[in-house]
Amino acid sequence: MTNFLEKLNAKIPSAVTERTEFRGDETLTVDAAHLHDVARFLRDDETSQFNLLVDVYGTDRAKLGQSPRFAVNYELYSIPHNRFLRLVTAAPEPEDSSRDALPALPTVTDLWPTADWLERETYDLMGINFMGHPNMRRIMMPDNWVGHPLRKDYPLGGEPVYFEHDRNNPRFAHLGKPIMFGPSFETELPEEMDTEGNMVINLGPHHPATHGVLRLATELDGEVVVRVGPEVGYLHSGFEKTGENVRYEQFIPYCDRMDYASPMANNYAFVSTVEKLMQVDIPEHVQYARTILVELQRLGSHLIWLGTHAMDVSGTAHAISQYTFQMRERILDIFEMVCGARMTTSYFSVGGLRWPLPGAFDAAVRAFLKESEVHMQDFEDLLTRNPLWLSRTKGIGILKADDAIALGVTGPLLRAAGVPLDLRKVRPYLAYADLDFEIPTATEADTYARYTVRVAEMRQSLRIIQQALDKIKPGPHRTANRKVALPPREEISTSMESLIHHFKLVTEGYRPPEGQVYHVHENPKGWLGFGLLSDGTAKPHRLRVRGPSFVNLQATDLMARGGYIADLITVIGSIDIVLGEVDR
Amino acid sequence: MDPQLVTDLVVHTILIVIVATLLMGGFAAMTVVERKLLGRFTLRYGPNRVGKFGTLQVIADMFKMFFKEEVVPDHVDRAIYLMAPGMALVPAMLAFAVVPIAQAPFVLPFEVFGYTITVNPWIADINVGVLYILAIGSLGTYGVVLGGWSSNNKYSLLGGLRTSAQMLSYELPMGVALLGVIMLAGSLQLTQIVDFQNAWLGLRWFILFQPIAFIIFYICSLAEAGRAPFDLPETENELIAGFATEYGAMKFGLFFGAEYIHMIVVSFIMATLFLGGWSGPFATQVPLLGIVYLLLKVGFILFTMIWVRASTPRVRFDKLMKFNWKFLLPLSIANAAVTALVAGVIFF
Lengths: 584, 348
Fold this sequence. Notes:
Distance between the termini of chain A: 36 Å
Shape of chain A: globular
Radius of gyration of chain B: 21 Å
Number of strands of chain A: 15
Shape of chain B: globular
Structural class of chain B: mainly alpha
Number of helices of chain B: 11
Largest interface: A-B, 36 and 32 residues
Low-confidence stretches of chain A: 176-185
Oligomer: heterodimer
Strand order of the largest sheet of chain A: 1-2-5-4-3
Number of helices of chain A: 20
Largest sheet of chain B: 2 strands, antiparallel
Mean pLDDT of chain A: 85
Number of strands of chain B: 2
Radius of gyration of chain A: 24 Å
Number of domains of chain B: 1
């Protein structure tokens, strides 16, 4: 297990200062001076091969009494060895003590290109500089923002908000006047763009094919895309900061609003992270119920993708989007029956389900499964062998396995490149170990491969739901651990202890032990990761969200280059992004 | 002045006004029919709020279009910008002039100011009718191209460029496909082409002899009218309505109308050239029946056009051009050559 560590210590002595293990998470504390060498070793050495950089995020440890104040966490995953590893590197304090000086670390973008946006986000929100980063700009906040919001000393509420469109800004004095006198302003473009020789066109932030407020500065040579500069952050709502100021349980509704196409899966990802931190035992009934609901959610998310993707390729009049939404309606009906909400479900709670499954659940899901077979066939009839669809998707937006891994791309995009990486299979959780299903893959790595992979995944989800429905047994819908889950109502009337538990849980929430965990769930769009740094209080000290859409979106430029502008739209659709999750 | 000429002029003018009005009415009806049908194709109801089954939606839309503020952006080439919608609309209508809707001129049963009035079931029965249709068809491109150009918007420019390339190149296979029909009918005159088809109980349609030409013509008509899957000048998901991005209110309405009228006229032409026009069983004896036949055929073609829109992905621009130059054009030439050979063997 640890032989790469011995090798590492022999090769770069004194680089790793500490090795800890907490809740199954392995952490290496690495000296800042050796970070880059250690990272390179871990990526390249055959005993480690941590080729996938899952996440980069900073922590502000001032209130934990640790020094130096800032640390950066690198979550690594080794696809060949199926192993997670966290590197923690303390960022040295800046030498000059002026207010603007930032602690700095070497960049790892040259090792894992995915670190580009992740490090920019860390810089933007935590104020840690990455030396050698090609484009160290703010990514979420406006360029003229003051301060770094995720720092613990950043004021909460009441602070002046510097918006570009400030009313007193003379540049925007024209607002409110007739539109014809409105001058247009230079927008910021990626530096390498050739605005003289080629045409640069701004797709978005208000564009029908960007699925939200995404801006794609696109350099065009005729109709051929030379390069694309995706610009995100228009929808940034500070979920991480919010999460650090509410109790663990209270963050669950926020998860619904990140990837609003798959709230159940988001709920599960967060809840399971807290459960990992608190080591809660989950009853079998809950495991199966969660499996069914998460798989229904996967179907729902893929249905939105299929409908909107076909619409991107075909125009808004195409019939399939409505057909997919019809099938998704049935799923939402089931969710509504289960928890009263259709999109913002918040149904999972730490330790179980918020309410028991309704009695008609089984029959409703079975009815859905029966009719969905017909629907799935309809979709495939419309598209799978349609020559126009083939000509629009085959060979378009190729993302090879090596590039995908280097860019941290996960989910169906990676599987369409031939890498059978699915956490449900390689590290089974929930009830997946007991169920028989396959991980569909394809080798072409183009848009059509992603289509076939996702459609096959939908069929596998139907299979999983069917099996889970057959195997689910009645049982308690919550863990018996009273420190986490509320006691049943009847018990409160008879037991003083239960009343106290109830009171404590409702008024204070639970207090997980001190420690840091990172947990990844196979969301419909890719890996949704949650990082929690607990200081022993009822609120997380640091809450990190790794949105699969955010990381996958980085691949846009690579996939769209050399294609036509129509292919760029196809590529965006085939990545399957939700801007609520990209910007969080 | 020859009194007959004067009556002819007056009658023609009245006829033109009627046809133009009917075409505008057809456009208005099509907007509702299309939305209604698309609604059905896509599991929705379509408009159903205004009037019974949404039939009065047309009027509501017209009111909306007319009463919207006419915004002319500051950065446009004003004269061309304002002219373009009209330039798109008028040629679309003009092509209808040569379409016969019945066999013989109709003599009014009463005299007006002592003159006998003869009403032709066409506006002009010129002997180069097919050429006229092709010529007018390519004129319609100007409106869209100039609209895209004068808007001074990158999206519109791309839309306009696509139009010029697409519409002009689809003219070619369209014209070549018609060669077969012309050869078999032995005339460019639409009345004679229909007369040829009005045999075998009015069912000797050219689609039987020229199925490939019909398919080519159908595809090219979609491309010329800018209909899905060839609606590349607009492409709402890529170019945000392309050439029409900067247009609003009734100026947009005119572009919109041009597309629908183009679609209607092209359906009439298709019905006339390939589906026998007004001909059909007993259409010679009962001329009114001929008009009904023609409208049914046109209605069917329009229905398929909407159907196609709801069920096919859009073609990519470069593939569209490839498809045209490397497949449609050779196919239409081959079709014309084979027709010439076979017709030559049979007739001579």
